[in-house]
Amino acid sequence: MKTKYQTESQEVPRIAKELETYLQERVVKMLFRQKDTDPQDVIIDCQKTEKCEKLMAKYKSEGFDFGPMPSEDICVREGQEVEVKFRDNLTFSDADSLRFIYNSNLDTARRQVVIKHREFYAQKCLEFFRGSAQYWTNVNKDYMPKVITVKDNRAMLCELPVKLPKPPPQDPVPNIKAPIRMDSEGVLNDETLQKISHQLMDEWEHLSKYLNVGASHVNAIKRQNVNSDPDKLVFDVLQHWYKTAGRAENKAKTLSNALKKCGRHDLAKDLDDRDEQYQRIKLQQAEEKRLLDAFKFISQTSNSVIDEWKDVVRSLGVSDADVVAIEHDYSRSLKEQCYQGLLKWHNQAGHQGTLKKLIRVIKKCKHNQIGDSLASKYDIRL
């Protein structure tokens, strides 16, 4: 390095250092280009200022003609590391940030990446998802160009505003109603509620009040059935009541009382008759189940009844011919003969053949121990 003759010796190191800085320093611009057809597809680059115009034209020909304008002129050094990361509602799809090392002779700064939004509803009032691409570098005590801010020993070189178009709005998803599980064997099934819905007229709104269906729920059901059949509207109200009513509540009785209050005694009587018939059948089925269970208990545990089963079933009313047929058909097992004899009586007696009658006959035949056991097991008062 040559200097003037008059240059003082202590000035030479400073001049040498400034010369070294000048030789290594480059004036560049930061580029952030997005693809026209897919703005999530991005090219990030750092190039000398004099090459930027030509490079922008090249990216435009490749379809990357969307995005912020290049940054202001920035001074960087050869080999300087730059980190790019986002602020606000944008980020890289596969990482929080990316890094590159600037080299004017190599294409080391160019990166093609994919960006995305962080939260879909975070900027719901805006047309775009917005964020800022920030370019950071390490603080160097020997070399510090003009920067925006310094934080945690890191300097921000520039910040570019980026926007990402939102996808077109989708059609609203129709409301999905939770399935209502109704007891198909009970009196309140779909068929019954549809029948009541068809016969109700203007009384249905009064009925909804007596059933404690809130006005807000009724209005919501009305909005969902604007173009529906009126019967469908009433049916949905009744289904909503059924769904929200307590499990322990006698729903048939509650609906009957509500129908009476709104003046539909005809529908209430029909519902009461159907419920009474259902309850009667339910009791009969429960009694039959207990009776068959008692037959198994007797034929497996009571040796006294098993040995004298013919006398017991004859006392119950089974004919001698049936007893002989049972002996012939089930000759290999005395227990099975006992069970089949009791089953024959049950089939012949029908609903008249009760568990209480069976216990009385067993005790009458002097089998008091098994009779008392059955009465205790099934809580029968003689």
Keywords:
382 residues, alpha+beta, 5-stranded antiparallel beta sheet
Would you give an account of this structure?
There is one protein chain. By secondary structure, the protein is α+β, with helices and mostly antiparallel strands. Strand 1 (25-34) and strand 2 (41-48) form a beta hairpin. The strands form 2 sheets. Strands 3-1-2-7-5 form a 5-stranded antiparallel β-sheet. A 5-stranded antiparallel β-sheet has the order 6-4-8-10-9, with no helix packed on it. It is elongated. It has helices spanning 12-24, 49-61, 190-199, 203-210, 215-224, 230-244, 251-261, 265-301, 303-307, 309-316, 320-329, 334-349, 355-364, 368-377, and strands at residues 25-34, 41-48, 74-77, 81-88, 90-92, 97-101, 111-117, 128-138, 149-151, 154-165. Helix 3 (190-199) packs across helix 6 (230-244), helix 5 (215-224) packs across helix 6 and helix 13 (355-364) packs antiparallel against helix 14 (368-377).
Give the SSE map.
Blueprint: H1 12-24, E1 25-34, E2 41-48, H2 49-61, E3 74-77, E4 81-88, E5 90-92, E6 97-101, E7 111-117, E8 128-138, E9 149-151, E10 154-165, H3 190-199, H4 203-210, H5 215-224, H6 230-244, H7 251-261, H8 265-301, H9 303-307, H10 309-316, H11 320-329, H12 334-349, H13 355-364, H14 368-377
Helix pairs in contact: 3-6, 5-6, 7-8, 8-12, 10-12, 11-12, 13-14
Biggest sheet overview: 5 strands, antiparallel
Low-confidence runs of at least 5 consecutive residues: none
Report the count of strand segments: 10
Strand content: 15-25%
Helix percentage range:
40-55%
**Cα separation of the termini:** 127 Å
Q: Output the strand order for the largest sheet.
A: 3-1-2-7-5
What is the gyration radius calculated from CA atoms? 45 Å
- Overall pLDDT level: 87
Total helical elements: 14
Shape descriptor: elongated
Overall structural class, as computed from helix and strand content, comes to alpha+beta
List the helices and strands in order. Answer: HEEHEEEEEEEEHHHHHHHHHHHH
